[in-house]
Each structure stands twice: as structure tokens, then as C-alpha cells.
Amino acid sequence: MVANSTIIPAFLVGWIQIVVPGDCFDEFFVKFNFLHVPCLKITISKCLGFAIILGSSIVKLPQVIKIFKAKSGQGISLVSVTFELMAISASWAYGAGNNFPFSSYGEAIFLAIQTGSIAFMILFFSGKHMHAVAYMSIFVGSMAFLLSPAAPKELLATLQAGNLFMVVASKMLQAVANVRNGGTGQLSFVTFLLLSLGAVARVFTSIQETGDSMVVASYVLASVMNGLILGQILYYWNVPPPVVVEAKKVK
Hints:
The chain is mostly helical. It has eleven helices and no strands. The termini are far apart.
């Protein structure tokens, strides 16, 4: 309960408590103890969490736009994207199923939508229109189940534990594809830079808000693996895409 001596107008109290919850509101705005370390950690974590969620709503748009403009997903591994989508979806379902604060997992919702769109375009622009529709149908149906009360907590925990494998597998598959292709194709530098920064920030917020070792470990690995792909994009920066030479038709 907020004391009456707070300097904050009543209409703003509810909004501020989203990032400065409970007793920390009193520490800051009633007792004016702005150096209260535990509350500083909570507030920084909340602010970072919501900033990550806000950023996640657009983080993959550069990648989406790049594929859409090129009408091609050349150089992007569909298997890698699928593993990434599975990892993101598992984090979303696990966070929601365990009633974690929205600020600790909310970005997974936006990342799943954008990653699913990338997978859809990879298939669609390769001429596999029905495959693209089937892919998205399976994804939507799976998430509808995982987010429902019918999904067992044990299943959600198993999927989250599998995140460690899926995070590494998704990025290693893409890294190997980049080496084989001698370039990074339609991968977006901006997207992977933002993903790397977001994953690093998520390590701190996950420790602070969930204390779940599986969640923390998955973000540590995501930081490392996103950094690997980012390094490849920089390494292959000036490498032109491979030229496909069509064979001459024999008359």
C-alpha cells in the first residue's frame, strides 16, 4: 500500500509501480531512499525487461524487410530458423505457464511472430506455397496448445530444458551454412546486433526476476551464439553473393 506522503500524483502511481513495484515504491518516493540496492536492481531489471520487449517488436523487421525486398531467403537455413522458433516458443510457453512477470519473457511473443514470418517467407519465396501455409498452421496450432491450461507443466519444463540444445543447434546450423556458402546471404547485421545486445541484457533480468537456472543458461548461450553469427556477418561483409550460372540448353 502506498503511503499518502508520496510526491507522485495519484494518477501516475499505478503506472510507476509497473517498474517500481511494492515496497520499492515507498523506498524511492516516500522515504526518498534512492540508493536502496535491492530496489535499484529490481527497477533496473524491470526497465531493461520492458525495453527489451519494446525492442523485440521491431528487432527482426530489418531481416523481414531484407527477405521481402529480395523476394528470397537465400543463405538463410530453414532448419536453423525452425530450431530458433522452437526455442523462442518454448520460452514463451514456459514463462506464461509459470506465471513469470511479463517483463521477463514478453519479447518471446514478438520474436516468435517475426521468426515465424521469416520461415514462412523462406518457403514461400522458394515456390513452396503450400509448405509455407502448412508450416504456419502447425506453429499456430502448437502454440495454442502450449499456452492452454491443457499443457502439462512437465512438458513446458522439458521444452525449456531443450532450449539449450535448440539455441546452440539453430545458430551452429546457420554458422555452418555461412561457411559453406562463403557468405551470410540475406542475414541482417542490425537484427543480429540487437539480438546479441538483448540476450546479454536478458541474462541480468532473468537472474533478477525469475532465478530460473535453465532460463539464465539459455540466454547466456544465446548471447554467445548470436555473437558468433554477428562476427560472421562482419567477416563476410564485402563478400558478394554467389552467382548462379544457368546451364545452356542443348538444342
